[in-house]
Amino acid sequence: MKYIDEFQDPDLAARLLDDIRATVTRPWALMEVCGGQTHSIIRHGIDQLLPDEVELIHGPGCPVCVTPLEVIDKALEIASRPEVIFCSFGDMLRVPGTGRDLFQVRAEGGDVRVVYSPLDALRLAEENPDREVVFFGIGFETTAPPNAMTVHQARRRGIRNFSLLVSHVRVPPAIEAIMQSPDCRVQGFLAAGHVCSVMGTAEYPALAERFRVPIVVTGFEPLDVLEGVRRTVRQLERGEHTVENAYPRAVPPEGNPAARAMLDDVFEVADRAWRGIGVIPDSGWRLSPRYRDHDAEHRFQVGDITTLEPAECRSGEVLQGLLKPHECEAFGTTCTPRTPLGATMVSSEGACAAYYLYRRLDLPGRPGSRPPGATAPTATDAPAVTVPSREDSSVV
Ligand code: SF4
């Protein structure tokens, strides 16, 4: 497939791996920020092909996974109201709140609809002036601009029965929080390329300098990831800590000025809670006062709902890179994609789902894992994988 195959070329992958092997002299721990990168890494076995010295730690960049439980509970409360048409990307319907999920709300009579764009929700609001239409706006700098634009359109066109339940988060404050954690082992970052395609790279040099970590803007195909790893390892071996753009085909340094202008118009930076991590200062957005009329949390008075995360799910540790999914006791036993205990198993970008989908049940320490002494897979051993189909829309 043109534009995809060229970034999955096995010969080029082997050359990049040779280069990484020739460069590395000691252990390094790198974090890939985005769940899309995690899936690419696990699906293609990239972490198993890298030299033992290079460890990939899976970061928090999955929009569904980081949405806190209390926001899910607010969504459940709003979606249960008879006057509401609650619209969401498909991923969110199976994320468990306290005791139920949006699918169950729908089964109980709630009008919960899967849409493919926030503009679909706005159209529903236009077509149903006697109903309240709410769109569940979650995700990072990638999903925030279209949601901002939809609220902007609603206000401009006087569509008053449309509102947004906002839970948007920003990557740079999360990197700061990860680096400030006393347990942090991360020595370099593969920054999320699509986030930078919106926001540019201007926020990263200060972080790289302050924490003395290389930050390499990285894409999502196997060669993109390997190139990000290669550049990060090269910097670490040289004692450097700069920002590099290894994804220039999608990321101009200034990002997307029109999208950023829309964000500045509709949102204001605010503290946000991250699932399993807690509140990170200035790590998200909320609607600015000019658009408060379209704030579902304000409109439906659900701001005082607070919920504690369940102790049995260790997704907070997974999201901070402190635990690999297969190290969670519930992984693959009581917690599977069909019976998820946490968002990292539900989401199509979640690290737990990636480990499950791509057979990381077969890991040392788990029943049926590769016996001691068995050889690690090579590039030519890479298994043929079946990509799961996505029946529903998803947040990216
Ligand atoms: S395997 Fe399940 S219970 Fe364990 S951290 Fe992942 S989502 Fe939570």
From TrEMBL:
Which residue ranges does the record annotate as region Disordered?
366-396
Q: What is this protein called?
A: Hydrogenase formation protein HypD
Bias (Low complexity) ranges: 366-388
Pfam family for this entry, one: HypD
Among InterPro entries, the record links this protein to: Hyd_form_HypD, HypD_1, HypD_2_sf
Family, similarity comment: Belongs to the HypD family.
| The organism's place on the tree of life at top rank | Bacteria
Is Transmembrane one of the keywords UniProt gives this record? no
**Gene name on record?**
hypD
> Keyword Metal-binding: yes or no?
yes
Instruction: Alphabetically list the UniProt keywords.
Output: Iron, Metal-binding
